[in-house]
Amino acid sequence: MTKRIVVVVSGRGSNFQAIIGALQRGAIPADCVALVTDNPKAYAIERANAAKIPVVIVDYGAYATRELYEQALLAALKEQNPDLVVLAGYMRILGSAIVREYAGKMINIHPALLPSFTGLHAQRQALEHGVKLAGCTVHFVDESLDGGPIILQRCVRVLDDDDEDTLANRILIQEHIALPEAVRLFCEDRLTIEGRSVKVRM
Ligand code: GRF
After folding, report:
1. Number of structural domains the chain divides into
2. 14-24 vs 164-187: helix axis angle to the nearest 10?
3. Which residue's CA is the nearest one to ligand 1's atom 12?
4. Which of 55, 68, 137, 170 is paired with 79 by a 20 to 30 Å CA distance?
5. Is residue 180 lining ligand 1, measured as CB closer than 6 Å?
6. Which of 110, 121, 129, 139 does the annotation list as catalytic?
7. CATH number, domain at 145?
8. How far apart are CA 193 and CA 50, in angstroms?
9. Tell me: the pLDDT tens digits for 92-145?
């Protein structure tokens, strides 16, 4: 059955665009029923408009407290009745009510080979550590920071003359492959979480 997916972003939305492309090619059996953003200036809004995907703005700055913002975000998500929530460059830590509501139904893309380099500036952390391989991870979201069960990872070599931008750009190319692939696997019911592992049925 066609799944309902909601994508949540804070900014540019190039990963969202990669999902739109895969949906338009018929590569994922799903409808993107909404783009949800905490940022009224997010460029992703233009991408959603161009693809005729409804936009829901839950403006972080419009709420007096983080708790009120989280309540509004949860209400906005519930209204869409999603089978899958995709965090694609959502730059805030989610509160536990939302994480619990969507346990096993929410995935995130992180620009590092987890469990290394969680949190912000993952590519900078990788360079500073001197690793030779970097990459991206798509994982289920749990209450830990970037710590949920891993669905898939893709890696890139770190070059001697890389700076944060060149490395981030090379990783981003892999993100644009990994995230639509993980969404497809979820929407085709191929993923099973077993403890810390995600089994992928081929
Ligand atoms: C990506 O690198 C993603 O992994 C990270 O934030 C960036 C978002 O890029 N969490 P975009 O908005 O998808 O272009």
Report:
1. 1
2. 40
3. 13
4. 137
5. no
6. 110
7. 3.40.50.170
8. 35
9. 999 999 999 999 999 999 999 999 999 999 999 999 999 999 999 999 999 999
